[in-house]
Design brief:
single chain; six-stranded mixed beta sheet; Aldehyde Dehydrogenase, Chain A, domain 2; 472 residues; seven-stranded mixed beta sheet; Aldehyde Dehydrogenase, Chain A, domain 1; Ald_DH/histidinol_DH; 15 helices; globular; alpha/beta; Aldehyde_DH_Superfamily
């Protein structure tokens, strides 16, 4: 792509005046494309297009909407290699990982397509013999989606899928770091025959302008945002004026609890996969790893072994930009000064790009930055513990509440700890975290609302109460 554009009402548009912004490859620092830098005018036109398309899309029979969504999923799978290559060039993750994300994104779209057929209403007993009561599911209306750079395809389909299934139309702003992947997704939906205006894409390097327009427009009845807690708070404040519905998936600070009856080698292998996926740039990434003293040595050694087997630039990509790299360096330096030991990694790599090696820190204490802030990088801090009863309280000692990981062979402990953990999602012994049939989302400062499964579609529905009196 030389000059990528906005998709509005089924047509591609440049920003009036030709304003663009550059997209960079974090592995080399080189510019890879110029993208239309949309402002208030094109954002407003995108909302116009979505509002025009809404009546016919919501009225379309469910099986027809589902068929279009299945065709879009098929287009994504067919284009997975090329979209994956685009993602690698602008986001940095290895090609195999990027291609797998595209296929996963198609799976989320397929699941949502099938939910289209299951949007049932309800009936309730009438108040009198001549009264009938129904609850009718209806789409919220025009939806604005704001997606992050760390999973630039799957985060789009996890918003688009349930919104389209519910009968909503969408105006979406991708992250300014990764607009090319979003444009490739929009091309796939267009090729699948999605009606004009049902999905509109507005790339911009000025996200605050996009937010101002969508939050002020009463036709936009819901905003779905994935990103930082700071931005999420601002959107929540802005939503109050129009009482606009929000789903916000924000930051995380995920604990891992490795209990003395766990298999330390199996736990280490799974933690390494979760921690170093996408170079640690995931809100679900393990950020505080509590290992019981009885198994800590074996667990930490095995985790370090897995980290050493990862080759940056081959098995793991770079951090997204210089600011992300600086944060990781600051966290590691603080831990080392505080007495922690780097068993692997511990310093940025020489050469081009924003690469940081997989790093395992032992001797970590909870006053260090790696335990107080979300690192968002390939750093695994291990904290030893003795108090089995008190470690859950330590895990809960964070304002965030997205994901927690538990390793134990004790069924009673599994249930008790899972109930006590204050997180929206808990996975035990490596159970899958985000399949399309399950709701994804957090509590506390990690946000509210769910994506995935039937609950994900419900977030895009209103239920209208209908009471009818029967004449004689």
């Amino acid at each position: 792509m030389d000059k990528a554009e906005a998709l509005i009402g089924g047509e591609w548009h440049q920003e009036p005046g030709g304003r663009t912004f550059a997209v960079y490859d974090p592995a080399t620092g080189a510019a890879v494309a110029e993208v239309a830098d949309c402002g208030a005018e094109l954002t407003g036109r995108a909302i116009d297009a979505a509002a025009r398309a809404l009546p016919s899309w919501r009225a379309m029979p469910a099986h027809e909407r589902a068929g279009l969504m299945r065709r879009a999923a098929a287009e994504l799978v067919e284009r997975a290699a090329s979209i994956g290559a685009t993602m690698t060039s602008e986001q940095g993750k290895p090609l195999a990982e990027a291609t797998a994300e595209v296929v996963s994104g198609a799976d989320h779209l397929l699941w949502a397509a099938e939910e289209t057929r299951r949007l049932y209403g309800q009936t309730a007993p009438g108040a009198t013999a001549d009264n009938r009561i129904w609850m009718l599911p209806e789409p919220v209306g025009v939806v604005a989606g704001i997606t992050p750079w760390n999973f630039p395809v799957s985060m789009i389909t996890r918003k688009l899928g349930p919104a389209l299934a519910a009968g909503c139309t969408v105006v979406l702003k991708p992250a300014e770091q990764t607009p090319l992947s979003a444009i490739a997704v929009a091309e796939a939906f267009t090729a699948a025959g999605l009606p004009p205006g049902v999905f509109n894409l507005v790339p911009t390097s000025r996200p605050e302008r996009f937010a101002e327009v969508v939050m002020a427009d009463r036709r936009v009845r819901k905003v779905s945002f994935t990103g930082s807690t700071e931005v999420g708070r601002e959107l929540i404040r802005q939503s109050a004026q129009d009482v606009k519905r929000l789903s916000v998936e924000l930051g995380g600070h995920a604990p891992v609890l490795v209990f003395p009856d766990a298999d330390p080698e199996a736990a280490a292998a799974a933690v390494a996969r979760s921690k170093f996926l996408n170079a640690g740039q995931a809100c679900t990434s393990p950020n505080r790893i509590f290992a019981h003293r009885d198994v800590a040595a074996r667990f930490t050694a095995a985790l370090a072994g897995h980290a050493q087997a990862i080759t940056p630039g081959v098995d793991m990509g770079p951090l997204i930009d210089a600011a992300a790299l600086a944060k990781v360096e600051r966290h590691v330096e603080d831990a080392l000064k505080g007495g922690a030991t780097a068993l692997t990694g511990g310093a940025r790599l020489d050469g081009p790009g924003t690469f940081y090696p997989p790093t395992v820190l032992a001797g970590v204490t909870e006053d260090m930055l790696v335990c107080r802030e979300e690192t968002f990088g390939p750093v695994a801090p291990v904290i030893e513990f003795d108090d089995v009863e008190g470690v859950v309280a330590r895990a809960n000692a964070t304002p965030y509440g997205l994901t927690a990981y538990v390793w134990t062979s004790d069924l009673t402990r599994t249930l008790r700890v899972a109930e006590e953990l204050e997180f929206g999602m808990v996975t035990v012994n490596g159970g899958p975290l985000a399949p399309p049939q399950a709701p994804f989302g957090g509590i506390k400062h990690s946000g509210y609302g769910r994506e995935g499964g039937s609950l994900g579609v419900s977030d895009y529905l209103e239920y209208k109460y209908l009471s009818v009196g029967l004449g004689r």
